[in-house]
## 1
Amino acid sequence: MLDPEIIWAAGFFDGEGCVTIPLYRRKAGGPLAREQYSLQVTVTQNRREPLERFLRWGGRIQVMSQPEGKKITRPILRWIAEGRSAMAFLDDVEPWLAVKTPLVPWARMLQATMNMSRKLDGNPEAVADMLAHRASIRAAVQSFNHGAEPDVAAAKVVLLRAVVQDRGEANVAGYGERVPGKVAA
């Protein structure tokens, strides 16, 4: 059944929203703790009411700091959802997106790597590959946000290698692609 709130959210997000993958550098912990990537969706607005409608997917609304030297009469507000909440939002609105549709597969790929992290702990080569793949996903999303079209097919091949390294058969990143045997890196 069509939910008008989801369709509205897709249109509003297409015009006022953004998909980002921030990189956090941490000093403590094992190799995966050094670089932490996070899927993040945001919608920025100067009125709170539209942003409150996005809270059904979780996240939070925060007041952004004012740019120095500019007099702004209204606060700048931002709805932010991260990780699974962000992915749930993108899954719901994807069929109605017009502009940001190409970003959804990249978001799925990043989330798939997040779900695999613990399984790779103790395998330094696999961890290095995973971090490199996350960096390439982040670069593709940044390129799209600056006007370029990301090459999703190329990234799927890289992810396929990372996912299947130590498995006989895998469901690749939620794409439903079944891959028999092992894939050489």
## 2
Amino acid sequence: MHYLVCSNCGHLNEVNNEFVEFCFKCKKKMDSSFSSWQIQNPEKTFEEYKRLVCISEEEAPQVALKPKRKFRLWLILALTIATFAVMYTVGYRIGSYYFTESTQKIEKELAGFCTEINRSCPTMIDQITRLDGALIIPPKNDQV
């Protein structure tokens, strides 16, 4: 009896024919299947494959491969969090720079408009409406 070690989970899969492609335990395609091996070695037979690639019954107890650790999920999660943190920080810095600058420009322009309007006040807009003056009311900042 010959076995093929799964590169994903470390399971020993019994190789009883040429069509063993997927691990019986994790159901993932094995890297060293006969069909993949035969592409690189077209002149070789299944018996040579078992002798060269597979593990014999005597060697099976000695092979105690640890499965690949599932770092991929943790790596993706860590990279996503790091990317989000960097993008948030950069966006906050850029946004606060541009919005603070534009707010100050708007307040300057409004002050200029108010000064112009106040020079000609009080003025009658129509028969019943009188403009006494204009002033800028600062925004309410409830943030601490």
